[in-house]
Structures are given as C-alpha cells and as structure tokens.
Amino acid sequence: MSGPPQPQPPVLEVLDKTSIKIKWEGVSCKPAPTNYAVSVSSWTDGTKLTRYIDRSGNAHVDKKDANIFGASCRGITVVGMEMGPSYKAQISVKQGEKWSLYSDLSEPCVITNPDPPATPMITVHDESSFKIRWLLDDLGCEPKATHVAIAWKAGGPSVTYLDKHGGHHTDDVPVIDKSAKEVTVRFLRTNVPYKAQMAVQNAVGWSKYSPFCPPDRIAKPIQLDPPVLEVVHGDRIQVIWEPPKLGLPCTAYAVALNDGTVTLYLDSKGAPHDSKENASIIPATQTSIMVPLLLENVPYKAQVASRNVLGWGPYSGFSKTETVVKEKKTPMLEAMAGDDFEIAM
Predict the structure, then answer these.
(1) CATH no. for residue 81?
(2) Which of 74, 77, 168, 326 is 20 to 30 Å from the Cα of 222, by its Cα?
C-alpha cells in the first residue's frame, strides 16, 4: 500500500509578539488519516532552523520531543516565538503506520510591529473646534488593530497627545479605542495651522506614527481656484467653480464677471449688477451659474469668492476668457429658409 497523500501547506497567523497560530486543512484519503505532525522553520541572517511542535505549542529541535496531533485537529498555537525571524511551517499526515511527505512550506510569517496607519483626516467643525477622523480599513494590520494614539501640533514645533475627549497631554500618550472613529478638539484659536498624525496598536505592539496631515485653520475662506467658463447654447455663458477644500463650511458664494472694461456682480439668477450691494449672494449648495443676455464678440472672464461664518474670503484669480459668437447662416441656408418646397409623393 502506498503512503498517504502529501498535505497542502498550512496557513500561519500572528497572534501576538510571541505566538503564531498554524492552521491546516484535513487530508481526505482511505483509510482515513490518524494523525498529523507539525514543524516550523525560521530564517535568521540566512541560517535555517527547523523545530517540531508538541501539543502544548512548544517547539523542539529534536523530533523525538515533539508530539503528534489527532485526526480531528486543525490547528495549534506555537508559543515562544520571537519578533524578526521569518517563519514557515509544514505538516505531515499519518495513515495507519505510514507518514506522508511533509507539505511544501507555508507562506512566510514575521512577527513585527504594525506598519504606520494612513494619515488621519482633520476638518474644521466650527469656529473653535476640529474633528479628527480615521477609517478602520486604513488601519489594516495583522493582528487587527485595537487602539490608536493621536499627536497634535498647533503651529509650532511642540507636540501634544490627545485623549478620547480631545484633551491635551504632554507627558503621557493616551490610548484611544480604534472604534471611536473620531475625536473632537475644542477651544482652538483662529488663524493657527493645526495638524495631526496617528499611530496604531495591535497585539504585537505600536506602529510608528503616520505622516502629519496637511494643516488646516479656523479662518476666513482661502482664495478659491479660478472658475471655468463654458459657452452654452451659443448665447450664454455658464460659470463653474469648485467648493473650498479646507476650512469652515461654506455659507455662500459671490461671482464677478468682467467684460474687459467693467466688473459686474451676478445675483443668484445670473443677472449682472454694477454694484456688489445690488447682487444677491449665491447659496452654498450652488457651484455654477448661467449668465444670459451677453453681448456678442466680448471676451468675458470671471472670479469667485466664498463666505463662511467668519466672513468673506478674497476673490479668486480670473478665469480664462470666453466669447459669445453668433453663428451666421450660409447664403444657401438663408435661401432655403426663404423658399417654400413641395414634396412630391
């Protein structure tokens, strides 16, 4: 009778800084398997060391000190592992009195601290506070992340560490449950560039901190990018702009249109006025406006500004110019337009 089939390689999973879980699929054969054996190999500085596992999860250099596992067993937690070496495992299956060849080596597994997480996101919440948010999917690490720590800078080089209520600490680093998803930092000042970074903890240890996020301020709006002008239906221009990407929520917009001689200010329906005071503001939900009844062959360009609860920001630079040009009919089309045609049936 030939020996049992060679098993598939097992799967390794890091549990903590000293433990690895080895899991395997059962082998299907007749007669049914009676036992499994497990070995773990490690590589340190190019040197391979193979050890054999007992039922307590201890690893032994001598195969005689190891144990075999029952036919229903599908995994063992190996203890006494170290951070740094690359571990791979193999299993063998017993059928009657015969053992199979050991499986191919598993995929490598290294016990190491988690990688730095993605940069946290900060947004201005109101006139005196920020919200710091993170995405759970961006904390991807094995074992799974359990906590985060948040470092905070307020314009200068000094760093404080935030607790779950947004309180500041300088001598200790508060640990925040990752499922909190956000922290609110209150009692902040205007016109100060604030930014944050984050570290993540799992059963192995702490990662290094992420990079700092781009700074943001509690302030009047910054200058927007120039709008884009599009000629629509040949006789009107649509002004389109992007909303502010940072800062306090926008509460309104203003749009100015220049014809090369004067600047006109648009109301919410696109009607131009020569005085800012006569032009109504444009709602924050609106990011484009149609300007009708424009003169032909005049190069128009536009600017846009936004407002928040602290006031108006500066107007953007001018857009590229657009010109309304009336389409002229060709002589043949004009003749056709003036003639009556009969269609013979």
Answers:
(1) 2.60.40.10
(2) 168
